[in-house]
UniProtKB/TrEMBL annotation:
Cofactor(s) named in the record: a divalent metal cation
Keyword set, alphabetical order: Metal-binding
Domain annotation Transposase Helix-turn-helix: ranges: 34-84
Coiled-coil residue windows: none
Record keyword Nuclease present: no
The DDE Tnp4 domain, residue ranges: 102-259
Source organism per UniProt: Pseudonocardia benzenivorans
Descriptive protein name: Transposase family protein
Length: 265
């Protein structure tokens, strides 16, 4: 076999959080025997999430069997997912910010049953792909605050945000939020851009936005910019670029990545 050096961008703090969680899990189970020490196991799991390497590649790189890779990853995902914040905890963080940025993102999947129309719920007409809809809350400087549990990709962003309780929580605590026009009608605390105006009944053409309205949209887009960076950072975890696990277990991956992203901030 051929070996070559490789690198990945991840903070030592995130790696330490995972290693401490693994040590605690081992002490709780009163077992110390593992092929890899906690620090090396944490590095393996981060490499899996960050780079999307296959079990065979990870087994070769760490000198262990593929079955051991599978066990080590499964063992680490549960405590990572358990450390992910709840919506209530995220709202407490959001209350200390000048405003937050709300946006939806589709994370693609390729393992979904096609029988009995099951795949339709995961099919996004906008993106022409199957995936999960997740709602992302970011702060004004582009740090992740919260990722919602996933919903099937056919759900509209507004419906997903309401179902996950985000809209009601923002309104109840009077938290200002910036969002795109998909969240039109979300309430007085959620600011959206100016939508393209309706057709003129006389000419049949869409009425153009005024200069002031265009300036408002430009300023609003700049305000939302940091949220787009969070979405890009989320997709930099290659395991989420096209999820190959069951749709029913994908939520655990999202929560695990969320924990590491927040720890890295």
């Amino acid at each position: 076999m051929l070996y070559y050096p490789s690198g990945m961008t991840v903070s030592s703090r995130a790696l330490g959080v995972l290693a401490d969680a693994l040590r605690g899990r081992r002490n709780q189970r009163r077992t110390r025997w593992r092929k890899l020490p906690a620090g090396r196991q944490a590095l393996l799991v981060v490499a899996y999430l960050r780079k999307g390497d296959t079990y065979a590649d990870l087994a070769c790189g760490f000198g262990i069997a593929t079955s051991t890779v599978d066990r080590d990853i499964r063992e680490a995902l549960d405590p990572l997912a358990a450390m992910a914040p709840t919506l209530e905890q995220a709202i407490e963080v959001a209350k200390r910010k000048a405003f937050v940025i709300l946006d939806g993102i589709l994370l693609r999947i390729d393992r979904v049953g096609m029988a009995s129309g099951y795949a339709r719920a995961f099919s996004s007409g906008k993106h022409q792909a199957h995936g999960h809809n997740v709602q992302v809350i970011a702060d004004p400087v582009g740090r992740l605050v919260w990722i919602s549990p996933p919903l099937p990709g056919a759900r509209h962003d507004m419906g997903a945000a309401r179902e996950r309780g985000i809209i009601d929580a923002l309104a109840a605590h009077e938290i200002s939020a910036a969002a795109d026009t998909a969240y039109q009608g979300a309430g007085p605390t959620v600011a959206v851009g100016q939508r393209r105006r309706r057709k003129d009944p006389d000419t049949g053409c869409y009425r153009r936005l005024s200069r002031n309205q265009k300036d408002v949209n430009t300023a609003h887009a700049r305000r939302r910019g940091p949220g787009e960076r969070v979405n890009a950072e989320l997709k930099s975890w290659r395991i989420l670029r096209k999820i190959r696990s069951s749709p029913h277990t994908a939520g655990r991956l999202f929560a695990a990545v969320q924990t590491l992203m927040i720890a890295s901030a």
